Automatic annotation (TrEMBL):
Compartmental location: Cell membrane; Membrane
Keywords: ATP synthesis, Cell membrane, CF(1), Hydrogen ion transport, Ion transport, Membrane, Transport
Keyword Transport: yes
Family statement: Belongs to the ATPase delta chain family.
Protein name: ATP synthase subunit delta
Top-level taxonomic group: Bacteria
UniProt xrefs under HAMAP family: ATP_synth_delta_bact
Membrane topology of this protein: Peripheral membrane protein
SUPFAM superfamilies (alphabetical): N-terminal domain of the delta subunit of the F1F0-ATP synthase
Organism of origin: Alcaligenes endophyticus
Gene3D superfamilies: N-terminal domain of the delta subunit of the F1F0-ATP synthase (1.10.520.20)
């Protein structure tokens, strides 16, 4: 999927540059892109937008009508640009790239925490304190239970992975023994 991210990045960067001077605009674009990404990710929507019988104007109207949020001129122009360049289905990647830029500006990042067992709030907060020191960022946790880890946790922050799970240790032992 790196190829799609590469195509989506210029759109996200352009939107971010236009909105980064105003915190309110940044938040509203982030929310709108998230909604657009959800709609564009639906199978039926993807099929409808790929229908060769539709003109670009019809695609814009169709997509706009599926959104709960009313669109201002800038948002409508953005959708028209995406439809014209046949990039409307890249909205999930554009939203992801936009959020990465937003987090970078704020000095924050999302921490995907995979745990073998459910973690309570106190455990998550204790883990976050250590992770924030390690990564030097304010982290927003997203905790998922993954029993296949057997024990421990795996943390993903951006492109960095910290894996202290039993599964990872067993894999390391296996590699050592077979080498």
């Amino acid at each position: 999927m790196a190829e799609l991210s590469t195509i989506a990045r210029p759109y996200a960067e352009a939107l971010f540059a236009a909105a980064s001077n105003d915190k309110t605009a940044l938040e509203s674009w982030s929310a709108l892109l998230s909604e657009m990404a959800q709609v564009a990710g639906l199978h039926d929507v993807r099929e409808a937008l790929n229908d060769p019988r539709l003109e670009n104007r019809q695609r814009v109207e169709l997509f706009s009508s599926l959104l709960k949020t009313s669109l201002d001129d800038k948002a409508r122009n953005f959708i028209e640009l995406l439809v014209e360049n046949q990039r409307i289905l890249l909205l999930p990647q554009i939203a992801e790239q936009f959020d990465l830029l937003k987090h970078q500006l704020e000095g924050t990042a999302e921490a995907l925490i995979f745990s073998a067992f459910p973690l309570d709030d106190a455990q998550v907060n204790e883990l976050l304190v250590g992770l924030e020191k390690k990564f030097g960022l304010k982290l927003k946790p997203n905790v998922t239970v993954d029993p296949s880890l057997i024990g421990g946790v795996r943390v993903v922050v951006g492109d960095q992975v910290l894996d202290t799970s039993v599964q990872a240790r067993l894999a390391s032992m296996r590699d050592t023994l077979t080498a």
